[in-house]
Amino acid sequence: MAVVDPTMDFERELHDSGAGWVVGCDEVGRGAIAGPVAVGMSAVLAGFSPLPAGLRDSKMLSEKKREELYPQALEWCSVSAVGLAGPEEVDEIGIIAALGLAGRRALVSLHEAGVEILRSVVVLDGNHDYLTPALTSAPTVVTRIKADRDCGSVAAASVIAKVHRDRLMIAHHDDHPGYGWAANKGYGSTTHYEALHELGPSPLHRLTWLH
């Protein structure tokens, strides 16, 4: 299957239609059994720079390549943010509401960094808008299937969120060394489930996901 490089065509259309800011948005960690869910956002103004060479959806990149592209993605976008919702919040309110909570936290960070949220259009990867129900005053949210593959701002958000969350899980590896988080990042690998059977859950596990 041919590799598709993202473009900024859709973002350019949104700017031309009046959007002050275009905010690419992608989530990471939805399917993990331990650790937070993360929502990354990459905000760009019109007149953006060319995309970093090799930037793609984080799932299409090796861990080494993501680490190489991470600082480039941060530098490329005007402002970026990652919002988190912890495992206890996932357990308490469910994964979809937790995604909304993490997204709201990311938007607050963008706002504090100077992004005019109500003049923004958020390009949300997928076909389900989990963001708007979590907000009291919402920007325009456009869902787009395969936006992480096709839209440069969303690809940047996916890399930023993925590296941010991976680094958090690697940092927790030494706190709870039996689960192999440096390798599996909290996802349910065979060795992770074996460690759960032997050690039981840690404070970072999503307990409702283990039943």
From TrEMBL:
GO terms for molecular function: metal ion binding; RNA binding; RNA-DNA hybrid ribonuclease activity. Manganese or magnesium. Binds 1 divalent metal ion per monomer in the absence of substrate. May bind a second metal ion after substrate binding. InterPro entries: RNase_HII (IPR022898), RNase_HII/HIII (IPR001352), RNase_HII/HIII_dom (IPR024567), RNaseH-like_sf (IPR012337), RNaseH_sf (IPR036397). It catalyses: Endonucleolytic cleavage to 5'-phosphomonoester. A divalent metal cation binds at D26, E27, D125. Residues 20-211 form the RNase H type-2 domain. Keywords: Cytoplasm, Endonuclease, Hydrolase, Manganese, Metal-binding, Nuclease. It is found in: Cytoplasm. It comes from the Bacteria. One of its GO terms (cellular component) is cytoplasm. The keyword Hydrolase applies. Its EC number is 3.1.26.4. Its cofactor is Mg(2+); Mn(2+). One of its GO terms (biological process) is mismatch repair. Endonuclease that specifically degrades the RNA of RNA-DNA hybrids. Belongs to the RNase HII family. This is Ribonuclease.
